[in-house]
Amino acid sequence: MLIATRFAFVAIVASGILAIPALGEVKTFKSPLTPKAPYSGATRAGNLIFVGGIIGLESNGKKLVPGGITAEAKAAFNHVITMVKRAGGKRSDIAKCTVLLSDIDYFPDMNEVFTSYFPASPPTRSTIVVPAIPMNAAIEVECTAIL
Prior knowledge:
- The protein is an alpha+beta fold.
- Helix content is 20%, strand content 35%.
- α1 (69-86) runs parallel beside α2 (107-117).
């Protein structure tokens, strides 16, 4: 049985009650690349930071960076880190990444970029191949950080 409130979750298990501390204040942060988007680029809830799906956009946010998967991956991970910092965290706080790829053949190049951004103690990661990503991007990345 799971009892959920806006700021806390309590799971009742056979051995007793397992409580996850209240998340506290929820703050949202717009992405500088997509300031008019109908969603937040990142959300901080207590000591958790959630960074929404990010593709490899140029600094004006209007089109993808040129250069294919490697350039798009670098731009996406740079922006993920920017959003984590905006919300009060740092790169080493990133605990989980989900990576969407539009082609399985992009996996080795994405993996190389990922390794360059997280050379020691990398966050856990899920990689999913999907039929399409907005703007025909090769990659989309979302991450969760724990402060």
